[in-house]
Structures are given as C-alpha cells and as structure tokens.
C-alpha cells in the first residue's frame, strides 16, 4: 500500500452492532498505510505481535505489521443520528502525505448507511486530532463549510481549552482553520464539561473522560436494555495494546496518564459483556476484552452487514 495513495476500501454495507435498542454502524474512510503502525506504536514490534497469535490475520498482516483504519461510528439512538469522529476528510492540505488531499467516497458510504449529511443530529469529537475532525467540514468554493449543517458538534471543554492554550505549529493551525473553526463560526460547536462518571448526551449515549492521549479526550459509552458498548477514541489505538497494555502511542501528549487510563479501562472491561468498538481497529473492529495470562485479548465480535432497515434509515 503506497504512502501517497492509501487504498480505498471496497464498497460494502456498513457493518452494524446492536446494543439494546441502539444500532452502531462502522462507516469506513480509509485503511491507514502500513507505515502507520511502526510510527504510531513503536513498541508493537514483530516479536510482540508474534507473541499474541490471535492478532493475525485480522489485526496484523503476515509480516506482523499492524493494520489500522480510519472510520466513523454512526449511532442510531432514540430517533437521533449521532456520528462519533469524522476521520481525515477530503481535500485537506496535510503534512502527513497519507492524509493529504484525500478523495474518498466517505459521504456516499455515510448516506448508504442511512446517515445523509443533512440528517445528522450530533457529531461527537472524541478529541481534536487531525484524523478525528476532517469531515467536520467540506469544501464549498474557496470556503470550508460544516458538512453536517443541522448537527450540534460536541467536544469537551477540557479539550478545547488545551488547544486554545497551546502554541500550535502551522500544520495543526491549518487543521483548526479548515476543520474546527468553521464549525464554531457557524455556531454549531458545543463545549461540554464532562464529569468523571460521564455525561449523557442522548438516551443511552454518554461521554466519559479518557485523559492522556490528549487532556480532554472522551470515549463514548452506549447503554441500552442491559447491554453496553464503548467507542474508544484513541485511548486504545490497536488491539495489540490488549496483549501489551504498556505500549504507548507516539502521539500521546501525556504517555504516563494515557497508559494509566488504558490499564484502568481494560481492567474494568475484562471478562464483561461490554462491546469494545475501536476507533482505529481494522475489521472486525469490535470485540470483548478477555483476560489472557497477565494481560488481555480481544474476542472479536464482527458486525452484521444487512441493509440499514433496523435503525439506520429510520432511527
Ligand atoms: Zn486517531
């Protein structure tokens, strides 16, 4: 897979998971290029991957290189259409060549999943990194305008305050200019105070703090009919971090706190029925956390790929 031209994924129905009365779909943007894993998670060496054979073939390739993906989770909840993170986006000038001026059919995929842009009610930004905010906006002539004009865009106030108080390098300033500020300027951005025990934003949908990767990062907890699921954001980038919870991400702002957050979460999820949905996990993307010796493994739970008659078209 070329760094300059990341592969488009083939058109396929968006896989879906049901969580009580909620339906979550994965809407694909791109597979991330093979260079991503060694850069992002340098501790995930081929030896580490080999020691956890369950990672292959889905989560690592035959050369023991990690697979990673960019996608959105589209949640139908109590009549609301909610997107969790918006990927890299099309046509954006980016320092990372794998993210520079993408041209994917993401919006078509979103529509096929039952989430045309004009229908979206809430857009949750787990954190304000380039690969989580890109489809916040689309190009309209010389301007970047909100892709989801009816939506409230939600992120934590702690996240906003961190970046507002930081001297940004030009590539990150560019990202804020083209993907975050237009949403705020259109009056669509809400900054939320997220307490430690979570903040419900819709029936059964709550934000929970996952600090470390960024200071104000949140995960999204889904609870309905006795079932629970958790959308990670970047508190866990890849299932290899279940096998080796000490593997930090190269881009964690506070690696020690990120590691503590990850270990606490894994201990809470271990051997429960909570479905873990990974924001960069490649297909099958979701699973249950199971204790495995001194660490954990992911027991994969693939989504179903029926047409979105069960909540996508008429949530
Ligand atoms: Zn990310």
Automatic annotation (TrEMBL):
It comes from Kitasatospora arboriphila. Gene3D superfamilies: Ribonuclease Z/Hydroxyacylglutathione hydrolase-like. Keywords: Hydrolase, Metal-binding, Zinc. This is MBL fold metallo-hydrolase. SUPFAM superfamilies: Metallo-hydrolase/oxidoreductase. Belongs to the metallo-beta-lactamase superfamily. InterPro entries: MBL_superfamily_lactonases, Metallo-B-lactamas, RibonucZ/Hydroxyglut_hydro. PANTHER family: QUORUM-QUENCHING LACTONASE YTNP-RELATED, QUORUM-QUENCHING LACTONASE YTNP-RELATED-RELATED. Residues 69-280 form the Metallo-beta-lactamase domain. The lineage of its organism: Bacteria, Bacillati, Actinomycetota, Actinomycetes, Kitasatosporales.
């Amino acid at each position: 897979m070329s760094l300059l031209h990341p592969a488009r994924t083939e058109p396929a129905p968006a896989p879906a998971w049901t969580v009580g009365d909620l339906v979550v779909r994965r809407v694909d943007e791109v597979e991330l290029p093979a260079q991503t894993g060694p850069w992002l998670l340098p501790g995930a060496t081929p030896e580490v991957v080999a020691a956890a054979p369950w990672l292959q073939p889905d989560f690592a390739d035959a050369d023991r290189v990690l697979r990673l993906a960019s996608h959105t989770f589209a949640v139908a909840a109590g009549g609301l259409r909610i997107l969790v993170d918006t990927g890299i986006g099309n046509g954006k000038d980016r320092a990372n060549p794998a993210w520079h001026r993408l041209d994917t059919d993401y919006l078509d995929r979103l529509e096929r999943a039952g989430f045309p842009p004009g229908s979206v009610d809430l857009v949750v930004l787990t954190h304000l990194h380039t690969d989580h905010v890109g489809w916040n906006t689309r190009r309209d002539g010389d301007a970047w305008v909100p892709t989801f004009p009816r939506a409230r865009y939600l992120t934590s106030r702690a996240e906003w305050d961190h970046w507002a108080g930081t001297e940004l390098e030009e590539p990150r300033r560019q990202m804020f200019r083209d993907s975050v500020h237009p949403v705020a300027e259109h009056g669509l951005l809400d900054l939320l105070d997220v307490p430690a025990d979570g903040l419900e934003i819709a029936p059964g949908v709550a934000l929970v703090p996952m600090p470390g990767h960024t200071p104000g990062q949140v995960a999204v907890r889904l609870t309905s009919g006795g079932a629970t699921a958790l959308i990670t954001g970047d508190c866990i980038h890849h299932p290899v971090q279940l096998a080796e919870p000490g593997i930090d991400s190269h881009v964690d702002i506070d690696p020690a706190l990120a590691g503590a957050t990850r270990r606490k979460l894994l201990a809470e999820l271990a051997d429960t029925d909570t479905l873990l949905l990974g924001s960069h996990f490649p297909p099958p993307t979701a699973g249950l956390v199971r204790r495995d010796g001194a660490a954990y493994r992911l027991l994969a739970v693939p989504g179903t790929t029926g047409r979105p008659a069960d909540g996508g078209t008429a949530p």
